[in-house]
Amino acid sequence: MNIENRRYVIIAFIITVGVMYIFRLFYMQVIDNSWSDRAHQISEKRREITPPRAVIFDRNQTKIVANKTYFNLMVIEDKMGLNFDTLAFAELIGWTKQEIHERFAEIVKGEGIYYNRHNNTRISNYQRIRPYPFLKELTKEEMAKIAPYLDAFPGFFEEETSMRFYPYPNGANILGYLSEVNAREVKEDKFYKPSYNIGRAGIERYYEKELRGLKGVHYVVRSALNNDVKKYEDGIYDTVAQQAPPIELGLDIKLQAYGERLMKNKKGCIVAIEPKSGEILSMVSAPSFDPNLLVGRKNVSKHYPQLLKNEDKPLYPRPTQAEYPPGSIFKLVQSLVGLQEGVIEPNTSFACNKSLVGCHNHPAPSSIERAVQYSCNPYFYYAVKRIIQQGKKNSVFKDAAIGLTLWDKYMHSFGFGEKLQSDLTGLRSGIIPNTEFYDHWYGKHKWAFSTIRSIAIGQGEVKMTPLHMANLAVIMANKGWYYDPHFAKKIGENPLTSFKKHQTMVEEKYFEPVISGMWRVVNEDAGTAGRAQIEGLDVCGKTGTVQNPHGKDHSVFIAFAPRENPQIAIAVIVENAGFGGTWAAPIASLMIENYLMKDCKHPEKEIRVLEANLLEP
Amino acid sequence: MRKTKSLINNLDWPLFIGFISLIVFGLITIYSVAFNEEFPNIFSFSEKYGKQIMWIGIALFMGIMVFLIDSDIYKKYAFPIYLATLSLLVIVLFMPPINGARAWLGVGSMGIQPAEFAKISTALLLSKYVSSLNMRALSPTNVLLALLILLVPMVLILLQPDAGTFVVFTAFFFVLYREGLTFDPFLLKFVNLIPKVRFKQTWLGSHFIPILFVFVFLSIITLLFGERNIPLIPGLKLYGSVGIISTLFVLGAIATFFVQRFGLKRAKSKAQLIIILCFILGSAVSLTVEKSFGSLAQHQKDRIELFLGLKEDPNGKDYNRNRAMAAVGSGGLLGKGYKNASVSSVRTNHVPESETDFIFCPFAEEWGFIGSFSLVTVYIFIIVRILIVAERQRSQFNRIYAYSVGMFFFYHFAVNLGMNIGFAPVIGIPLPFFSYGGSSMLSFSIMVFILLKLDSQRRHVLR
Description:
The structure holds 2 protein chains of 2 kinds.
Chain A: H1 6-31, H2 34-43, E1 44-49, E2 56-57, E3 63-75, H3 86-93, H4 97-110, E4 113-116, E5 121-124, E6 132-138, H5 140-146, E7 156-165, H6 172-175, E8 178-180, H7 183-188, E9 197-199, H8 202-206, H9 208-212, E10 216-222, E11 228-231, E12 247-249, H10 253-262, E13 268-274, E14 279-286, H11 296-309, H12 318-321, H13 330-341, H14 368-374, H15 377-388, H16 396-413, H17 435-442, H18 466-478, E15 481-483, E16 488-491, E17 494-495, E18 501-503, H19 511-523, E19 540-546, E20 554-561, E21 568-574, H20 584-597, H21 603-611
Parallel strand pairs in A: 2-12
Antiparallel strand pairs in A: 1-10, 2-3, 3-6, 3-7, 4-5, 8-9, 10-11, 12-16, 13-14, 13-21, 15-18, 16-17, 19-20, 20-21
Chain B: H1 2-10, H2 13-33, H3 48-68, H4 72-76, H5 78-92, H6 114-131, H7 140-159, H8 163-169, H9 171-178, H10 184-191, H11 203-206, H12 208-224, H13 240-262, H14 265-294, H15 298-308, H16 320-329, H17 360-391, H18 396-420, H19 438-456
Helix pairs in contact in B: 2-3, 2-17, 3-19, 5-6, 6-7, 6-18, 6-19, 7-8, 9-18, 12-13, 12-14, 13-14, 16-17, 17-18, 18-19
């Protein structure tokens, strides 16, 4: 080849490279999207803004769950510089130098280690250029002590967060608490990211979706140092975070607080319900604790183990989960079933035959009213025997099976033996023994009423939660029907209508004699709950004493008031307090008085209750 | 007066306008990349755009000075100038290192890089020496001396170390190739040892340089797109040699089509043979490189991967190359719009050195394929235009110098753009007249103005 022609080789070479580059650029920029995706991944960040959780009001529009601003002290190690005065910083936050080094080590450790399969290396996920919380959940006051001096410590800055705040130290068992989501929850619901909070119990848990609100999304262009540089596309894709509308509860926080005060130094519970709506006015689980103890990671890790270890189990939601034999209050139900079945009349009388079942001394139970008033055990032995053994079969065993099946249906119509529908989680059903239950226990057709007679007076196998007991008071007050007992009334401006009305199998007319009995229990001298009497109010109630194989009997009392147009139905259980009339009845009456009269006309009664310490030594 | 007029008449305006457009677009891009809201004025000398304007001013002033000097002195004083820059290259080795390299002379930001000016002086001396040779009777000594002129500054530059400029110096091999000064004399000595063989030249010896460069290019591409890295064609997941061979096959098929369709009848079979040979040779090179790389010891692999920018740095960050490619690729057809580079602006800083070595990133991101196509076209136009200017010179000195300038341009363009699109390892060399930086601006201006001056006086030179 002629040397002069070599110029063409070179020019061809140059033009080839140019064409190749143009093809490559066309491919990278126009055809292949993967580089563009990579660029989005590198330079843009989707920032989610979580709104503060919805606030919660009680029935009198008192704010009972609010949010409070807290601060995290953040650190970017890379910005701290070489001349960082660790000693002065330690002094500022009241730590030692050693503790600061330990905290850094803890942050690095918490980030974990990334294992690179390709070159077999391990790299810490911790990055010096990223912000990490150094101190978490500082209050405004704590931050105010540090903030003015932060200028001297480059790399440290404050960041706002919002956490729950409970203006009243009451209702912890109702409101529940928040804690960090677990891996499963993050996987199941895209709303959550690690370190988000989720409702763990009570209202916070049941209404989680209604409380958490709508997240806002901001798309930002970020720098290699992970700082936001500007809004992506001037923010046209951004959405604003929306706080959910407030929830209004049927709870009366003042009554709740009063109830918790009364139950101090006692174990047990109070459940008060507005009969006509099923709204729960108060639900005390004693011993109780301040819900603010479980706000934020710092508090939870400090207080939760303490509460868990406490022998009196303050974390145990007794009103919905503790199952007690109902005791004598069960006689109300038995009377109603007997009347409805026509096996007894209002004026039916039985002898108080103490050889059948033990009883205390009282005048003869000449009618249902009197039997309820005196809480006569043999009376109900006879009455229930008539319900169970109706003589429809010749075999006493087969007859008992038919009778119990019928009785079981009645019980379920009262909501017993099943979980009540409510806006609470973890409800227990209690136990109503049916034929299967006894067949399993004794064998088919091997039992009769005499075998299972203890159910007549609410002992033995029958079990109920305090919520069931309060619901029984509601049924008595309403003469035969109840709404699902619940807390939430309104979400925003919308009343909740999902709670159903239930009718029992007992007609309204049969309630009158039993309610008269309940009135006599409280308002007549021979009644068992004279302590529940309130001047000017027709309180109707029934005591119960629950035999406790582990110690002193539990004191039980259910009531409603006033007799006409009842406003409150209540159940009180005081563990290991003996006879129902002694402690449960006065506590119930104080609650009713507080709710209906807004004051206390019998301070000596209040003082007696407040001063009592019924905890076992 | 007459002199000025003749300069205006004889100036190669297409080339001059090409340079000016590069400078303007470079400045516009620097203004976008390094924009500081506190100093929005483009003449803010505290900011990089202001400084670049200052450097442009100084460069124009130097250009006028170059025009005023009689062009004869370059040939006359080529050797003293060469020696002077060599001594600067020695002195610079005793300076404190900046960013790990002893490349800077001077104080702070006002320093210069002697290596940049060594390019010009080497080009001048090489032009002078080669133009004095009798090309019809080259001896191996001539070739050795020419190589020596190149190797002395190259070794000094490698000691700094400045791999980029070192690589750029290999551009001279193309110049030597054009002038017919190749390794053929050495090869002939061996070939003619065989009895009864008496070649005047060998094909391999004459075209050794371009063949070598194609080999090097194929090897680098093979390794850059090797397995567990970025695939050559992402959708197809073709890595390394498989990717190269399939690409070559497609290109070969296209070339065959054109040859069969449009080729001259008598040239068809020869052209076809060359295409097949190229395909086989290319595939062989690619396979060999991959296999031999695979058989290297781990520490040797590490060293090569580090040089090619394939090794992850200790911070666990991604490669510069990956970031740069993401920035370029995200530009799309029309780009994100001026001042809208989100990956490669200095404010986000995802692409390091985005106002100097990686300035093509923000440009391609903001102006899209339309912009990058135009820029590649302008560069190729300028380079080819320089070669056309070179070929019209009557004096061999002028031609060799012009070829050197053209090949420098080509190298800077090919390597700089190549590292932005994944075709070249990350070697820090600037994009001429485009990147921010005084040394590069000054040295390229002087280099180009000398060329323009020589060209404007080409008719004065007698054959």
